[in-house]
Amino acid sequence: MFFANTPEPPYYACIFTSQRSDKDAASYNSTADFMDELAAQQDGYLGVESVRDQNGLGITVSYWKSLDAINLWKDNAAHKKAQEKGMKDWYSSYTTRICKVERDYTSK
């Protein structure tokens, strides 16, 4: 298991919960990998944690320095194209939540 290495709060979390459809798995996987690489190049990106169960329910949490950084990622042209494909083919439903992380702690 891999945890994102986030700084001391405050910072922001973008929580994307989705239910995958049965369409176009190969294209989905390659695009998801590309989106991870592209997001990591964005100013303000802090990291990501992602899981998906055998029934297609997934939760991806990306961490960001600011709301502005999240908005720039949302408006990224390649990300917008992937979002459109996701709405059309990859997800039967999804929800995005934006949260301010004010406190965190971990076991070592």
Provide tags for this entry:
alpha+beta; globular; 108 residues; 3 helices
Describe, in short, the structure shown.
With 108 residues, this protein is an alpha+beta fold. The chain has 3 helices and 4 strands, in the order E-H-E-E-H-H-E.
Describe it.
It is a single chain. The protein has helices at residues 25-40, 67-74, 77-90, and strands at residues 11-20, 45-52, 57-64, 91-101. It has 108 residues and is an alpha+beta fold. The protein has a four-stranded antiparallel β-sheet with strand order 2-3-1-4. Helix 1 (25-40) packs antiparallel against helix 3 (77-90). The radius of gyration is 14 Å and the shape is globular. The two termini are 13 Å apart.
Query: What fraction of the residues are assigned to beta strands by DSSP?
Result: 25-35%
Major β-sheet strand ordering: 2-3-1-4
User: Helical proportion?
Assistant: 25-40%
Largest sheet: 4 strands, antiparallel
Q: Which regions are unreliable across 5 or more consecutive residues at pLDDT < 50?
A: none
How confident overall, as mean pLDDT?
A: 94
Give the tally of β-strands. Answer: 4
| Radius of gyration from the alpha-carbon trace, in angstroms | 14 Å
CA-CA gap between termini: 13 Å
> SSE order, as H and E?
EHEEHHE
Helix/sheet category: alpha+beta
- Based on CA inertia axes, which overall geometry fits? globular
Query: In DSSP terms, counting alpha (H) and pi (I) runs of 4 or more, how many helices?
Result: 3
